[in-house]
């Protein structure tokens, strides 16, 4: 558990981060979203003390970060940044093994961990271990950057616009990969983004920052359906709210007994996917399948009911 | 680059033009003794016609190969054939001219020899650069060429040439001055690296230090070399006279110390500015990542910043080395020793051969140092430039 307590950073006259308090649960993703200048990156960088707080404190599993030497603290916290920041003169294997090497792991352990992570990110270890960053595609470089941040099994991983440099299709894949790997490893992640879509898609909780202040900190459904201020509502976007809401609800939640014609939609898909399928094939109801068997149906009326403004 | 048959290589045309002019100019100079003005002798005049024709044919053949093809290997071969012809003709001319002359007579290479040498070595360099050899291949080529040069000098083929006669008269002092010259050039470079690398690293970190240091070093660089050596004389003379123990270390107004210090001052700007530039060019994201993953300042410097900056830093060392080998000649003027000793003695005696005895090894040393440093820079560049 990460506790952020009245954390503040003052540059001259400006309060870049103004008394932000929040708690990040273990094994969850917290997405910090805001416009540029909102203080989101400064907040993130105060957690691993790349920026020293003016006041307030951070506790990781109860330990005050202010009591640790900054470089030792940072070795316990994974850090992935926009543009990956790989060392261009080191092989992929050496890049991923950088923090374990700092921590004094044995060569054998480092090698095993590197191969494990490459497998996890869908990169054949024998093919990629000895390549250099400039020999990889943008998406592969980004995956190696995230793998490097995870290498020492850190208590916490900080990600600053990790997908910012990727084109939209690769970006969506990278987001799915991150979600899958986070579930698999149970990692705790704090992620900064300017993109509300990304925040809603990835975050177990979303923190919206504006002018250095934390304006709302809530699960994504709540951010979309009950924005705490006009600013949050604007970030979510009026026209997209119903669609965003549907994207957060699995089909299984709106399923009912019965049958329907045509191709089935997966129970784990979102209601947005089901809506798209229904609209495209002009059907009023879709069969729902789980593990290849039809288990019920979802109607367009039920989907519409879920997209209405909550009471 | 392929062209239709019958067309000529543009570079080959240039080399052939230089070579053709060389053949038309006086080939060697014959003098009654080492200081009188000599008379030019044409390439075909001194040697029996058959031998002359053979040698000139080899030279022309080499140049024509360079003209006729763009393929590097034949051109390289052509340059070797041409150089062999040039060497044979020079050796034979000197021997023939001295055979019925008095003991004091001298034969020196004339404008023709130098022009032909220029044309043929340009052809060789052009062919070699077209082969795009890797660092280790370049090192091998350098060793072979230097070995060939040493073999030619040892063979006695050029023993009758005037500069070699000057050398024989001064073999012991030539060796001593060579060592002196190397000490001046490499010693001042080593001291510059010892001071310049840490200073460069500090300048990279502190903008205020950089703002003060780089303009000061640039200013030093603009002082003309003769003036710089002159300035050192009173300063080090004063140090030698007043600081206890300085004189016993050999610090005095003239001699090795002022030359060394002057070279050191010239060396600092390239070393410091290239260190700063190299460190500046390290990708920001990589530095940020290194800090974020918990590397200490020393670890960042050792594993990320210096390795990535090394090629640019070595490029600075290359500039300094070549520059110092040339500048060290001026040390001869203030009693600092080195090849400059021969150059200035030769100037005083109007003995061109003696000047060349100082100048030619300096040029050769500078070229070899430049090539070796280029090889090192390439060997340390582990990643292609565009991704660095």
TrEMBL record, chain A:
InterPro entries: AAA+_ATPase, ABC_transporter-like_ATP-bd, ABC_transporter-like_CS, P-loop_NTPase. Residues 2-236 form the ABC transporter domain. One of its GO terms (molecular function) is ATP hydrolysis activity. It comes from the Bacteria. One of its GO terms (biological process) is quaternary ammonium group transport. Keywords: ATP-binding, Nucleotide-binding, Transport. SUPFAM superfamilies: P-loop containing nucleoside triphosphate hydrolases. Belongs to the ABC transporter superfamily. This is ATP-binding protein. It comes from Roseivivax halodurans JCM 10272.
Automatic annotation (TrEMBL), chain B:
GO terms for biological process: glycine betaine transport; transmembrane transport. It is found in: Cell membrane. One of its GO terms (cellular component) is plasma membrane. It is a multi-pass membrane protein. Pfam families: BPD_transp_1. InterPro entries: ABC_transp_perm/SBD (IPR051204), MetI-like (IPR000515), MetI-like_sf (IPR035906). The keyword Metal-binding does not apply. Belongs to the binding-protein-dependent transport system permease family. This is ABC transporter permease. It comes from Roseivivax halodurans JCM 10272.
